[in-house]
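Re: that backbone. Tokens:
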């Protein structure tokens, strides 16, 4: 039997608007898929911070607002994927990340050559439903991708 599942677009003005043809996030059943986040301050539309710590904090704030808009929170995130512009920022990034993702979701973290808007860090994600006591948990699970990278203000 085919099930008709509706996609629910998630949108909030408390996180940066999509800068392309995509949504801030989608809820499919009880799974939330968040679009990648970079350290844009939604109030100004500008990149926030010049250090990995400042940019990571802004990304985490943006993610928190998306999670809230979807009706979930950091404790429900099952998997994250993180993209750094420089693996030399790994330790500093981890310190910020650990303050928010206290349940230690599964994670991959890699360095890439270039990130959107030349930021220091980018976070992306996908999730799966976790079952408890043989019955499906109806609370939202979340998947997150983050992006943070060095900002060249001379571009």
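Recovered sequence:
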């Amino acid at each position: 039997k085919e099930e008709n599942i509706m996609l629910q677009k998630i949108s909030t003005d408390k996180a940066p608007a999509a800068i392309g043809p995509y949504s801030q996030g989608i809820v499919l059943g009880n799974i939330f898929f968040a679009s990648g986040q970079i350290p844009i301050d939604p109030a100004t539309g500008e990149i926030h911070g010049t250090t990995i710590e400042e940019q990571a904090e802004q990304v985490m704030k943006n993610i928190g607002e998306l999670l809230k808009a979807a009706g979930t929170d950091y404790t429900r995130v099952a998997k994250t994927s993180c993209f750094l512009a420089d693996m030399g920022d790994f330790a500093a990034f981890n310190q910020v990340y650990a303050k928010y993702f206290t349940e230690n979701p599964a994670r991959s973290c890699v360095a890439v050559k270039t990130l959107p808007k030349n930021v220091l860090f980018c976070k992306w994600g996908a999730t799966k439903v976790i079952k408890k006591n043989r019955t499906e948990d109806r609370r939202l699970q979340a998947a997150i991708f983050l992006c943070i990278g060095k900002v060249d203000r001379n571009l």
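The chain is about 20% helix and 30% strand. The two ends are 54 Å apart (CA to CA).
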